[in-house]
Design brief:
The protein is an alpha/beta fold. The protein has helices spanning 5-23, 27-43, 45-56, 60-83, 133-141, 154-170, 184-191, 205-217, 238-257, 279-286, 297-311, 343-349, 351-354, 373-380, 398-410, and strands at residues 89-92, 106-112, 116-119, 145-148, 178-181, 198-202, 224-227, 234-236, 269-273, 292-293, 317-320, 323-326, 332-335, 337-342, 361-367, 384-390, 411-416, 455-461, 482-485. The protein has 15 helices and 19 strands. Keywords: Oxidoreductase.
């Protein structure tokens, strides 16, 4: 289905009409609405998970866990809304003795940007889809949401939207605060609409870049937060291999094979020292893994092309060839594929190997000296969502420290001793990174800081109390944190 032009106009008008009323909803009511959505999703879990299993091929356990994460995320944002520090309220008291001349009363905080268009993901039908992180963050910020459903799970998208809409209506939220559209053309058309004030996306580099360019080329450009491609390199030192080689092999196989490798944080490249002796453990670990259905025919086709390109590259060694079966309808089933290659060959082959393989495939890259890892990482990798270091117990040589600095420059999350699949929904989480991991490396799509994407700053100068927004008033009726700069302090600046 594709939303018609007439219906798109209605959706945009409804979202715009709801914007001011929803932004004015006091924190406790908005928080209760988010909790109501979480409750509604939880109550409908059996129905929603059943639809999701049929449309995506993901397991029941995976989907139930993902739905629980989605509900928890909404509840976490409810806490954020009530606590209020996300508004970043700053108050400068009028100061006639200010060192640069009399200072006016200036009060600044963050306000919702207005209607947000969220393009849902295929590989997380709950956590990054209709009611997922982008939608939750925008609703928490006080912005109406329009979700462009992913074509890989249309029935689930419609039913989830119905649950969300019913919960918001039951909580007394304005009509038009949450809506669903369908179809690629409809999504692009609505992204161009001047009533849409921000966009969010999770998907491929190609599609994300196209949408980001649309948002940037509007007569009035808008922020666009896209999570795109990531190969999530892992670096293993010789000391780590000697200490726990078998455990590393087991952890790698688990991380790559989970959900058939259809995760944006799957480790695509694992750098291991020559003579690492992990091959046998990896082969043994993959042998009992049953085939897993890929999300949809488009994913299966893309994975087949990337897997064929990797397997036919000169200089690779196949460790576990895995399998890929595609039926008459284009649906695919896969088991994990592992290959190895030298660091020199990886550099020579370039994008033929370095491009992301979205599916259960990972490349072991053999290097000679730990001291070379920082230089290798700098030459080979652009931005990534994650980068991982497995070092020996207490290992902190100059080369390891240098590698950590390089990884910090190239990734949004640097892991030590773990595996990147699995993104905790916590206040400190960062799920983003330099291009091409995202279109905006100063933001995150997971964690409480995600709310900042859908807010913009406004300052009021010498405003009377009666005309100030509630968070900026002296009586502070919303009881939010206020950072106050009192008069008279400027003469003491620099004396600490």
């Amino acid at each position: 289905m594709t939303t018609t032009q007439q219906d798109l106009e209605t959706v945009a008008a409804n979202a715009a009409a709801a914007a001011d009323a929803y932004a004015a909803v006091e924190p406790s009511r908005r928080a209760r609405a988010l909790v109501a959505v979480a409750d509604g999703l939880t109550e409908a879990a059996d129905e929603l998970v059943g639809i999701a299993m049929r449309e995506t091929g993901l397991s029941e356990a995976r989907l139930r866990g993902e739905l629980k994460r989605t509900a928890v995320q909404l509840r976490l944002f409810a806490e954020v809304v009530v606590e209020g520090s996300y508004l970043d309220v700053r108050i400068d008291r009028a100061d006639p003795a200010f060192v640069l001349g009399p200072r006016p009363d200036v009060r600044r905080y963050l306000v919702p940007v207005g209607p947000v268009l969220n393009f849902a993901a295929s590989n997380f039908p709950f956590a990054f889809s209709v009611a997922g992180g982008d939608s939750a963050a925008a609703l928490a910020a006080g912005a109406p949401v329009v979700v462009k459903a992913h074509g890989g799970h249309p029935e689930l998208s419609r039913r989830t939207a119905e649950v969300v809409q019913a919960a918001l209506a039951g909580a007394g939220m304005p009509e038009g605060v949450f809506q669903l559209i369908e179809g690629r053309e409809a999504g692009v058309e609505l992204l161009k609409d001047p009533r849409i004030k921000a966009g969010s996306f999770t998907g491929s580099i190609h599609a994300g870049r196209l949408l980001a360019d649309v948002a940037a080329s509007r007569p009035a450009p808008i922020p666009f937060y896209g999570e795109l491609g990531s190969v999530n390199p892992v670096f293993v030192t010789r000391a780590a291999i000697e200490e726990r080689g078998a455990a590393l092999a087991s952890g790698l196989v688990t991380s790559v094979s989970g959900s058939a490798g259809q995760l944006c944080t799957k480790p695509g490249f694992v750098f291991v020292p020559t003579g690492h002796a992990l091959d046998e453990a990896i082969v043994e670990g993959t042998a009992p893994i049953a085939e897993h259905r890929l999300l949809n025919p488009a994913i299966a086709s893309g994975y087949r092309a990337r897997r064929d390109a990797v397997l036919s590259t000169p200089g690779i060694t196949v460790l576990a060839e895995g399998s890929l079966r595609i039926d008459d309808e284009g649906q695919g089933w896969a088991t994990p594929t592992f290959v190895s290659v030298s660091a020199e060959t990886l550099e020579e082959q370039g994008s033929r190997l370095l491009d992301e393989s979205f599916g259960p495939l990972s490349i072991l890259v053999e290097y000679g000296d730990d001291a070379d890892l920082g230089a290798i990482a700098t030459r080979l990798f652009e931005g990534n969502l994650t980068a991982t270091l497995h070092a020996g117990d207490g290992e902190a040589s100059d080369s390891v420290r240098s590698l950590v600095q390089v990884l910090t420059e190239h990734a949004g999350r640097v892991l030590f001793g773990g595996w990147p699949t699995g993104v905790a929904v916590t206040p400190a989480m960062q799920h983003g990174g330099p291009w091409p991991a995202t279109t905006n490396d100063s933001s995150t799509s997971v964690g409480t800081a995600a709310i900042r994407r859908f807010l913009r700053p406004v300052a009021y100068q010498d405003a009377p109390q009666a005309l100030l927004p509630a968070p900026l008033r002296d009586d502070n009726p919303w009881n939010v944190p206020q950072a106050i700069a009192p008069a008279g302090e400027s003469s003491e600046w620099g004396t600490l």
